[in-house]
Design a protein that fits this description.
Two copies of one chain form a homodimer.
Chain A lengths: L5 H19 L4 E2 L1 H8 L3 H10 L10 E2 H12 L5 E6 L3 H10 L6 E8 L8 E2 L2 E5 L3 H8 L3 E4 L3 H14 L3 E4 L12 E4 L2 H23 L1
Parallel strand pairs in A: 3-4, 3-7, 4-6, 7-8, 8-9
Antiparallel strand pairs in A: 1-2, 5-6
Helix pairs in contact in A: 1-4, 2-3, 6-7
Amino acid sequence: MPSISDKVIGRLSLYQRLLYRLKAEGMTNVYSHQLASLSRGSAAQVRRDIMAIGYSGTPAHGYVIDELIKSLSDFLENPAGQKAALVGIGNLGRAILAYFSGRRPRLSITAAFDTDPNRVNRVIHGCRSYPVENMVEIIREKGIDIGIICVPAGQAQQVANSMGLAGVKGILNFAPVRLQLPDDIYVEDLDVTTALQKVAYFARRESTKNKEVKK
Amino acid sequence: MPSISDKVIGRLSLYQRLLYRLKAEGMTNVYSHQLASLSRGSAAQVRRDIMAIGYSGTPAHGYVIDELIKSLSDFLENPAGQKAALVGIGNLGRAILAYFSGRRPRLSITAAFDTDPNRVNRVIHGCRSYPVENMVEIIREKGIDIGIICVPAGQAQQVANSMGLAGVKGILNFAPVRLQLPDDIYVEDLDVTTALQKVAYFARRESTKNKEVKK
């Protein structure tokens, strides 16, 4: 299969969630222009993205929602399941554990780590927690290939290094730093503070613009 | 001042945080190539970004960290303060409240809303919570111009509509939907599930690639 960009993967993941919603609302079929409208893309892009995973609808009936969900799941998820480790069980770490707890059978957070003795050797939102010293060993033992970093900025690179050493191949990074890692490790940054600062900046500009218009 | 793209704003926000860290480590000056290395950009890009906010360093001593932090704060933040409202006080909403609690004096989450009677009329991580029915009124009263959406996908559009009606000009959206809103409202999507699915997909590809190489 040809290599697919991370933007396309992001859109396929969004379609999958939109389809679950439409199915829950009782729909059985959906047209590309409907998915396009819900995902703020074009119908041509939706068709291209879905063609890339080897599924296609018909002009008369569009996509069969159940079939398309199955195709997307087979493509996006590992049927054998995939395991993630989370490091940093502060407020954000706990929220992530709670959020994903039991939600995706094919992708589970199997171990959590922290330096704080009060946070380890417990079960938090269904996930067992361990001292961070045991991280490399436990990631290897459990065959975990995904890491989730929820530690403060100053500790993130060191945690990422240990994850790489342990064999992790993909990292979801919530710490506001750019990690330096080998090319074969995929990193996705989710920087909540930067996102909020961007929103604040543009909100302010729009508010000012409106005031100027009103003058 | 000319319009600045959201990518540049994102980088400026990152520089600001990196500079706070360097300052905490005892540094007083920093060169563009050092900021470039920490932010995984080029030195030319760093210099261009910082020039855009009207500050410049010297070839001999680079940037004075204290001065650059001040320039960035003046540019990115409203000295008079800016207020945000959060809707959806579930696990993620609580984590966001805890995360930003007292952290940024110039940007505070001033009100939180939920439909669940057990979650409202309380103080959660320093923020007062209200029934969602009062949202439009309270956002207007308090002069809030930023909204943070932490509700499930099915409720997000309705919450966004109310926010727009109340005068919010920027939205940080954690719900996995693409919101349909007027052009004068800036939306930043932070989709945790999609991010994790992307990481899982690419981690799996890398793991497979390595196995193939080893064969």
